[in-house]
Structure formats: structure tokens, C-alpha cells
Amino acid sequence: MSDLTYNQGIYRAQDTVNAMVRAGRQFHVITDDWHLPSFEQAVGRWARAAAAVSRWRRLKVAILGYAMNGMGDIRTLGPQIDSIAPGELVRAAAAVDAVAVADLIAEENEPFEVDARLSSVEREDHVRMQLGLERILIEGGYGAYSTHFGAIAEDGRLLRLPLAAASSLMAKGHGFSAEGDGLTAALMSAAQNLIGETQFTEMYAMDFTRGAFLVSHMGEGKWALVRDDERVKLIKRPLGIGGLDDPPTFFFRYRVGAGTLATLVALGDERFRLVVSEGESLDSDELPGLEMPYGFFKPDTGLLACIDGWVQSGGPHHQVINLGRREAEWRLFSEAAGIEMVLV
Prior knowledge:
Layout: H1 2-6, H2 9-23, H3 37-57, E1 60-64, E2 80-84, H4 86-94, H5 98-109, E3 113-114, H6 120-140, E4 144-147, H7 149-155, H8 163-171, E5 175-178, H9 182-194, E6 198-207, E7 212-216, E8 233-235, E9 249-251, E10 257-268, E11 271-281, E12 294-299, H10 303-312, E13 319-323, H11 327-337, E14 340-343
Parallel strand pairs: 1-2, 1-4, 3-8, 4-5, 11-14
Antiparallel strand pairs: 6-7, 6-13, 7-12, 8-9, 10-11, 10-13, 11-12
């Protein structure tokens, strides 16, 4: 009888949550034998989600220039969004010490395969932008940022887009999204706290033969997530977007294996939706004409069903991708943040 009386977890929980539901208080339920590893794992997942949401609500996101139309505003969820004039980057880059520039160039020469066509001027310009951006982020307390190619081009003082800078800053742990997209930059920061290494990307094109879609962006990719069997290249490549000079770009293929795509939708009236797809980052042949980081993602639900669900849910064109199947982590995060979640 004493054992029976001790093991009254069900009715204790029922009465507690009954009061919490009536009071409108948020909570999460884990039902398991507390002696088992599965219980420890479930508590760990919940704790990481709660911590990620807490950090998210204190996050500061810097948008260099302005936001692209339709990207939405995340401030009602907690993250602070600050607009920074491109002139800040101009001044920060100009103020970088020549020794720091030389040191970073030397550091790049060690792990990367550097394109011989890159001039010293191009490399120094890229490095100055990276170090200038990093100083702005650190001094401003920003955990994530986004640049808009239009704002940089319109300013007229910057020679090229900071694509390689974005790749290296992501590799150092900064959240990022392109085109003034503060939502995805904030989501990347949350994903890194929740799950770990995170890639910024977008769905580029459908591949009906593979049953997958090409995931890439115009040059920004987190080179820390390169395939295990390849070396990252720093290349010279033309880019018509923005009408500026050629931007040095880190080129690599995404790491293969199980993966999860996620994006954040601003629904209006302070409502948000997280759209998630689990699947596989595929091994594939190289695409010689594609001079930017890329991979192929095959959704578990099938290519057509996934795209249908993504579009019908309002999923925008920027996403983050994590290694492993991560629906459970994202569902806990959505629950703690008060966000609707859809799996497609």
C-alpha cells in the first residue's frame, strides 16, 4: 500500500494542470518512468527549448540597410530589431587595422583552397568588411544580423557585397539572413541555441529526378557545415546582383545526412507560424556551373507534398537547415514561444 500511495504521479499531475489550464498558464507535459534514459532525454530537450526561447527574447538583430518587403516583423516575440545605416559598415571597415587584415588573410590561407585569380585588393576588401561587421555586432550586442544587397549598392561607397564575410561570421556563431530578413536571422540564432550548427539557405529549384530540391543562396553559406570529404574553396566569381564588383565567395557543398528545414511565417496580428520539414541532405554529383554553397534536400513527405504544404502554410523563401530530424525540438520551441507549428 505504501508503494501504491507513493506512485500517485498521475492524479497529482492532473489536479496541477487542471488548475494551470483554468488559469491560462503555459506548461509542458512529459510522461515517463523517471529512472529511464528516455525521461532524461525528454527533460533535456525541453530544457534546451526553454533556454533557446529565453535567449531569443533577449536577442538583438541588426539589419544593415532596410528589410525586404514582406519579410515581417518579429519584435512582438521578443527579439529587438535595429536598423543600421550602411555608412556604419563603411566606417567600421575603414577603421580596421592593417595588421588585423593581414592576420585574417593568413588564417584563410591555411584551411581554404584560395582561388589564384583573387587579387590582394579583393581579399583585403572582403576581410575589412568581415572585421568591420564583427565589430559592429559585438559592440552592439547583436546575436544575429541581415544585410540587404540593394541598400549596400545604393550607398555607393562599398565596392562589393560582403558574401564571404557572412559565411565566416556564421561559422563563428552569428545568426544571419540575407535581404534584410530579420525573421530568419533571428530564427537561425534560435536554431543554434536549440539544436546546434545551423545553415542559412533557401529552396532554389525542384529536382524531379532526385525527388528533392536544390537548397542554396547567392553566396552566403556557413562553411563550418561543409561535407566531411571536401575542402572549402574561396573563389572569385561574377555576380550581377547589386551591380557591384565581384565578391569573394566561399564555395562548398552541404554536409549530407538526415536534416530538417525550418522557416518562420509572420501571419499578422502578432501571430507567427513555424513551418518544418524533415528529410535527407543528399549526396550528389558536383554542379560545375553553380558557384555558391549548395546541397539537395529530399523531404520525407515527398517533393510535391512538401512544396504544396510549404506554400499553403505561407512559408517564405528563406530557411534554416539543421542536421538530424528535429521536429521534436522545434515543436517544443514553438510551444514555449507560443508559435503555431506545421510539419510538411
